[in-house]
TrEMBL record:
Protein name: DUF1501 domain-containing protein
PROSITE patterns: TAT
Region described as Disordered: 233-257
InterPro entries (UniProt xref): DUF1501, TAT_signal
Amino acid sequence: MDALTRRRFLIASGVAGGGALAAGVGTIGLAQLLRSAGSEQAAALRNTGKLVLVTLYGGNDGLNTVIPYADRDYYTARPELAYPAEKVLHLDEALGLNPMMGGLKRLWAQKRLAIVLGVGYPKPDRSHFRSMDIWQTASPDNPATTGWVGRWLDDTNAGVESAVSFEPVLPPLLVGRTRVGACVSYRGLSVPSWVESSVVAAIGKSEPNEPPMQARAAAAYADLINMEQVVREAEQAAQSPDPSHAPSDTVPATGTGGDNALATQLALVARCIEAGVPTRVYSVSLGGFDTHAQEIAGHEILLKQLDQALTAFVDRMAGTDVGQQVTVVVYSEFGRRVRANASDGTDHGTAGPVFILGAKVAGGFYGEQPNLRDLDEGDLKATVDFRQVFGTVIDSVLAADPSRYIDGFQTDSMPFLLP
């Protein structure tokens, strides 16, 4: 491609004029993020704690994830949805995991999985968007304009690469008043099959003496082209060589948010951690958990995806010193109602389990399983305030004072993380 044609393409496509958007606040390319691994800041933070937040959008059915298989009321409330005790992966004499979660059962046996039971917040809201806003801002009493990670970014005057989302859009979680995390797209550049890769690659090559905005636009194209290869490598790394653990069918993410490429997102997180980038907090997601109808089949697909992606990531992280500094937290905006609905599904509920995974985890149960006979108008009563979970993570993983970022955090952290 000659220089004149290239310049006309950049201008005609609007990319040269929109170069600021490609490199603007809250947006960086993966190549730029990986290059930050060579900075002095990255070297100083290499052996510090790293946090990976996994959001399950739609409201995960906690009762069919961590199953009270010994409770008769579980079977009475949802006769068509309840799992027979013999199919449940028993964790103790009362609770077990969904049959699709064999990998997490193994991590439980290895003491690398902690489960916090009955997590919620006061005066629960059954709106997906308000409830997720509460979890991500850690402000259940009053609407907030900043996320709890964003407030940590503000307080530490952190750079944009300090908190990174591999989700389609930047979640409120990473937005502060003066600082914001980065949203790194993993989708790369999609071009028609008839366009030769050499032509596209030529667009991303810098030219001498070209205007700064045009040069930035070309660099953005180069990042997108490089992302294609990186994503392919990440997807291959996320695939298990064991045919019995082949990728599951997918459930389309709903309008409640999230995506359905969790394994790819976590593989990219793993690459960044192993490269030594200075990121302390990562945000990834899996959507589709709004299971109002025909829940069993769709929920099992989602839980199998979750299980495979989490276990592959945790196993990979266990292989390096820097990976052993990583803690994973898995949460959803709310659980489902105890009683099944008429469509063999469940409607919006309240409390649910939170999973904590990694080498720094003190495995086991924390909190108390909600009583299925002591309900709030048909919903579970939370036994643990979610702010205690996130506050513990801020304290133990980010080595910061939780009370600075989370209103209502009590004095003591929970003991699910090792010193």
